[in-house]
UniProtKB/TrEMBL annotation:
InterPro entries: Methyltransf_11, SAM-dependent_MTases_sf, Thiol_S-MT. Keywords: Methyltransferase, Transferase. It comes from the Bacteria. GO terms for biological process: methylation. PANTHER family: METHYLTRANSFERASE LIKE 7A (PTHR45036:SF1), METHYLTRANSFERASE LIKE 7B (PTHR45036). GO terms for molecular function: methyltransferase activity. Pfam families: Methyltransf_11. This is Class I SAM-dependent methyltransferase. Residues 38-132 form the Methyltransferase type domain.
Length: 206
């Protein structure tokens, strides 16, 4: 990664993904987490204050040293043990069936191989473990005009935000990886619509 991706983008994301409106969505997606949790795309730790008390420990997977540094105060303030335990969500350094739950927020849009990351999450989750996801991606099928704009803007989005995509079909990716979606809310979180087509849900590992 170059200077912009390493030193600038994590600071932009820290600010953009730390607003009050985003916190409300984070609070929703964190509901139901329990036990041992793996969080991919940990970023600067905005989810940390929202972990339920029944979470016993969190293994944070985050490639950015700056992102982890920005998370320092949040990690220090929680009573839940949070450890940076990996750098690559596409190749998790954990044994099979290690975790009760997994968390992914605004990660599947940017990780180079989302399919691989989801297969890895399925591998490390215990049978019946839950994946909690909050992602932006491809607009609903009925909104073809929004999708057209997403395809037009996607090259710019990827350049500005270190590989972030507007056109990934989040729910399809989750189900193709073998998860069963049990709760799902698809909506636009404000405007412009091409940038804020949100999928918030829970899926179960077989």
């Amino acid at each position: 990664m170059g200077f912009y991706a390493e030193r600038v983008v994590p600071r932009i994301v820290n600010i953009a993904c730390g607003t009050k409106s985003v916190e409300l969505l984070r609070r929703r997606v964190c509901q139901g987490l329990k036990g041992e949790v793996v969080e991919i795309g940990f970023g600067s730790g905005h989810n940390v204050p929202l972990y339920p008390a029944v979470v016993s420990a969190v293994s944070a997977v985050e490639p950015s040293d700056l992102g982890w540094k920005l998370a320092g105060d949040r990690v220090a303030a929680t009573s839940i043990p949070v450890q940076r335990a990996g750098l690559d969500g596409q190749a998790l350094p954990f044994e099979d069936s290690s975790f009760d739950a997994a968390l992914s927020t605004w990660t599947l849009c940017t990780i180079p191989d989302a399919d691989a990351a989801l297969r890895e999450l399925r591998r490390v989750l215990k049978p019946g473990g839950t994946l909690h996801f909050l992602e932006h991606g491809l607009a609903p099928e009925e909104d073809e005009n929004v999708r057209r704009w997403q395809r037009r803007l996607d090259p710019l989005e990827k350049r500005l935000f270190a590989g972030c995509h507007l056109t990934r079909p989040i729910v399809d990716l989750v189900t193709t990886a073998g998860f069963t979606v049990t709760e799902l809310d698809v909506f636009y979180d404000g405007a412009p619509k091409p940038m804020v087509a949100i999928s918030l849900g829970t899926a179960v590992s077989p």
